[in-house]
Amino acid sequence: MRIDVVTIFPEYLAPLELSLVGKARTSGLLDLRVHDLRTWTDDRHRTVDDTPFGGGAGMVMRPDVWGRALDDVLTPEAHLLVPSPAGAPFTQRTAETWATEQHLVLACGRYEGIDSRVVEHYAARTRVTEVSLGDYVLNGGEVAALVVVEAVARLLPGVVGNPASLVEESHGAAGLLEYPVYTKPPSWQGHDVPEVLLSGHHARIARWRRDEALRRTAARRPDLLEALDAGEWDRHDLEV
Ligand SMILES: N#Cc1c(-c2ccc3ccn(Cc4ccc(CN5CCOCC5)cc4)c3c2)n[nH]c1N
Q1: Which of 85, 148, 179, 194 has a C-alpha 20 to 30 A away from that of 58?
Q2: Residue 172: CB within 6 Å of ligand 1?
Q3: By the 8 A CB rule, do 108 and 141 touch?
């Protein structure tokens, strides 16, 4: 998979040289290219923004600079992703879908955003998705690019050492939150690991983990339980 990220802060994407994503790049599993939007400016001050039509605070990113950048970076098979406070929610299901793509292009805006005609222009000739990390305000699209690249890259075959670990993840198995995890020592600061996990009884351990996942989900994310088939479990099983 190829992923291009266009930004005025390319150094913001430096963490993607580390750990699993870094290894995926080195091994050739992921072809990640980070571009400085100012490469495509046309003035000595390398200007990327201007005042908003209609007035209002802040600045808006110029369509002409973005147009030259995207014309260079986009390919016929590319899916253009534009992080935005007004975007569609980015979820694990989104990551799973985008992990099957050949080419993703992330356009990271700053200021008050990118001139809306950019999305309008490219939507007529390629797949474009405005995406949001959640209902809070960031200063630009780079954090979203970091999240999208990591969430997608880890799903690529060969990136994560043990693919089985991708199966049991939160928002994965049956859409539940993950159960609590423990390691040695069996007792720490007076806190003991639940006995069942030391029993070696795999069926009981599996049942305990599912019950804990249900309990946590009911307490923290009841919205996820709405999506579950009511017949799969009885709420009265949970002393929440
Ligand atoms: N993904 C994601 C994001 C982003 C995100 C993504 C991309 C850019 C590019 C610029 N910004 C700053 C910005 C903040 C707020 C607003 C809204 N305006 C409405 C009118 O009043 C002024 C404010 C616009 C632009 C971005 C923020 N925020 N939150 C997410 N989950």
Answers
A1: 148
A2: no
A3: yes
